[in-house]
Write a structure and sequence with these properties.
globular, three-stranded antiparallel β-sheet, 47% helix, 18% strand, alpha+beta, five-stranded antiparallel β-sheet, Alpha-Beta Plaits, 258 residues
Length: 258
């Protein structure tokens, strides 16, 4: 038995097909739109939404601005203090001598930004850890050699001091007598702030003397390169800048002797 359709029935079927096609396209458009929104609002798979990351970025920008303004106010206050001290000690040779001695102590304590001739040492991770027989079994692929044995940085600081370095910084952190190196959560904390490779060490002093003592055969830089595979570059500088110590120095037990 054959079914026969009239012209009106054909028109009705065409309308139904059109409605179904329109509904399908509309639904597909909604699904695609939702998918695009999900992609645009997430920074990768399983990460925080972009709008949250942007909010954090804005907060960080505000904090940085506040920090710069605070640093500027501190510089202005220090400038006023210096002028006041100069007025007080003017004409007093004893006070001038004491103030000059105090300035030396302040520089040693990292109170001031300093500049002068020196060296810059850049330390990067090895290109291929698998080629290091000593370390490959302890450090997983993609791991950090420097973080694995961060005593290398501590030893480098000691060698720099013995070579006559007057001021030292690592990744912008001033090294002073109370500076601590701690490994926490896959980062080396210096002055209680997290740092990570590559490490850029700056030191003021006689560039030739420091270079000759640090590049001795079997010396600290030679050990870093040949035993640990680290990429080490030393540059001599006519003038470098080293920032002041940014934290507060607190003594829990020691007090000045009366």
């Amino acid at each position: 038995m054959k079914l026969k359709f009239k012209v009106g029935d054909n028109l009705m079927l065409k309308k139904l097909n059109g409605i179904v096609l329109f509904a399908s396209c509309f639904l597909a458009g909604i699904l695609i739109s939702l998918q695009l929104n999900m992609v645009q609002n997430t920074d990768g798979v399983g990460l925080i939404p972009i709008h949250v990351a942007k909010a954090y970025e804005e907060q960080l920008s505000i904090i940085r601005t506040d920090k710069e303004q605070a640093k500027q106010k501190l510089a202005e206050a220090e400038s006023k203090m210096t002028k006041l001290e100069e007025q007080i000690i003017s004409g007093n040779l004893v006070l001038k001598s004491r103030m000059a001695e105090l300035e030396t102590y302040k520089m040693s304590a990292g109170v001031y930004d300093v500049e002068g001739p020196g060296i810059t040492i850049t330390i990067k991770e090895p290109e291929y850890i698998k080629e290091l027989d000593i370390l490959s079994e302890y450090i997983p692929e993609g791991g950090s050699v420097i973080l694995f044995d961060y005593d290398l940085l501590v030893n480098l600081m000691n060698h720099l001091k013995r070579a006559g370095a007057e001021a030292i910084s690592i990744n912008g952190q001033r090294i002073i007598a109370t500076t601590e190196f701690n490994y926490v959560n896959n980062a080396i904390y210096i002055n209680r702030l997290p740092t990570a490779p590559p490490y850029i060490i700056k030191a003021t002093g006689n560039p030739d003397t420091m270079e000759s003592l640090l590049t001795l055969r079997k010396g600290i830089l030679d050990v870093m390169k040949n035993q640990y595979g680290l990429q080490v570059r030393l540059e001599k500088n006519e003038r470098i800048e080293i920032p002041r110590y940014s934290n507060h120095i607190k003594y829990k037990y020691a007090e000045p002797e009366e």
